[in-house]
């Protein structure tokens, strides 16, 4: 009797997959206690299933991996190159990095990307804000201060990734956005009443009608699991308090009920948008030719503000502004859509 009881006890302390090794972690998704070796196998195979089930890639495609040197994209670069080899996806993979010009942050993380270039044997392309826009984030922050600098950074990065992808002539761009990021964005879009972004922020592929489609193979992957082996890198200019509150709220929910993250994503996916809701029409920026729902894209509006010494131009919420007005001189008239960081 005692022996059986002791045996069960020992068994319950073993990995619930291999039943041989000691568990090293409890999976937030399934609450299974598993060992490190089994974790790597199930983690990678889950990403493979997401890729296959959602038909993310076709053989022969050229794919850029948005590589920031942070934890998510570093794991993404590893998993993509591993699965491409293991499952013969037949993809041509590239690393694409945007150098925002943030001393002490991006220059450090770019070193990680350069190591990944060698480790995984993937060609690396770096595009910089300085080359594309004439400004580094250090210079922008010096001019505008810490408030609103995330708006500049988010809008410029989005466009810089598209421009880099065009230079690499890739078919798609993959990013390391994870389940926590998406749940957070669903909440923020609800809090802002931004129905257009809410309706697209849960899609695993976005921008199929734009210059470069973007995919998120980590859409269902918990940040906690990606973080296991990597250190977090936080931007030194990141005062985005509102997003920070949403992030903390999601982490609190996760502590009480880990499934909350996937449930928020599911709620976002299942929202039905009333047909009477007016959606922005996609056109092209009259200045740079990049996609825009206004006459000028957000990047051009922000850049104009910087270059004219009016950095507040384009900051804040300005929905559906004067598409048909004469926009040449009036600062108010050339504002466009709010912060691109709520888009993927
Ligand atoms: N400077 C950059 N260059 C290239 N890709 C980037 C850059 N910044 C962000 N990305 C892409 O966008 C994704 C989300 O970035 P974000 O900074 O919002 O989240 P993160 O969780 O800090 O990601 P990471 O840990 O990969 O930096 C990244 O995983 C990466 O694929």
From TrEMBL:
Its main location: cytoplasm. Pfam families: ATP_bind_3 (PF01171), zn-ribbon_14 (PF16503). Pathway: tRNA modification; 5-methoxycarbonylmethyl-2-thiouridine-tRNA biosynthesis. GO terms for biological process: protein urmylation; tRNA wobble position uridine thiolation. One of its GO terms (molecular function) is ATP binding. It is found in: Cytoplasm. ATP binds at residues 66-68, 72, 98, 176, 181. Residues 63-205 form the tRNA(Ile)-lysidine/2-thiocytidine synthase N-terminal domain. It comes from the Eukaryota. Residues 318-344 are annotated as: Disordered. Belongs to the TtcA family. CTU1/NCS6/ATPBD3 subfamily. This is Cytoplasmic tRNA 2-thiolation protein 1.
């Amino acid at each position: 009797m005692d022996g059986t009881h002791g045996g069960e006890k020992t068994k319950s302390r073993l990995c619930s997959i291999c039943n041989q090794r000691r568990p090293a972690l409890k999976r937030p998704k399934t609450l299974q206690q598993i060992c490190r070796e089994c974790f790597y196998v199930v983690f990678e195979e889950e990403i493979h299933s997401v890729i296959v089930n959602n038909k993310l890639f076709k053989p022969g495609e050229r794919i850029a991996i948005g590589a920031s040197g942070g934890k998510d994209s570093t794991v993404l670069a590893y998993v993509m190159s591993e699965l491409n080899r293991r499952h013969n996806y037949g993809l041509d993979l590239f690393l694409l990095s945007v150098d925002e010009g943030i001393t002490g942050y991006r220059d450090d993380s770019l070193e990680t990307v350069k190591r990944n270039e060698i480790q995984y044997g993937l060609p690396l392309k770096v595009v910089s804000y300085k080359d594309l826009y004439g400004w580094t984030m250090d210079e922008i922050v010096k001019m505008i201060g810490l408030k609103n600098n995330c708006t500049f950074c988010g809008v410029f990065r989005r466009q810089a990734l598209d421009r880099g992808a065009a230079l690499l002539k890739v078919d798609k761009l993959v990013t390391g956005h994870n389940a926590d990021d998406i749940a957070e964005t669903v909440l923020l879009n609800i809090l802002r009443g931004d129905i257009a972004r809410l309706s697209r922020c849960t899609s695993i592929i976005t921008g199929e009608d734009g210059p470069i489609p973007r995919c998120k193979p980590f859409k269902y992957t918990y940040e906690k699991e990606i973080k296991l082996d990597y250190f977090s890198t936080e931007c030194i200019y990141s005062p985005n308090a509102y997003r920070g509150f949403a992030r903390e709220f999601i982490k609190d929910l996760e502590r009480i009920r880990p499934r909350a993250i996937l449930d928020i994503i599911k709620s976002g996916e299942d929202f039905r948008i009333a047909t009477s809701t007016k959606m922005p029409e996609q056109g092209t920026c009259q200045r740079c030719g990049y996609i825009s729902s206004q006459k000028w894209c957000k990047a051009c509006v922000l850049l104009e503000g910087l270059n004219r010494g009016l950095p507040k131009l384009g900051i804040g919420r300005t929905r559906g502004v004067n598409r048909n007005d004469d926009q040449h001189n009036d600062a108010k008239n050339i504002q466009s859509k709010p912060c691109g960081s709520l888009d993927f």
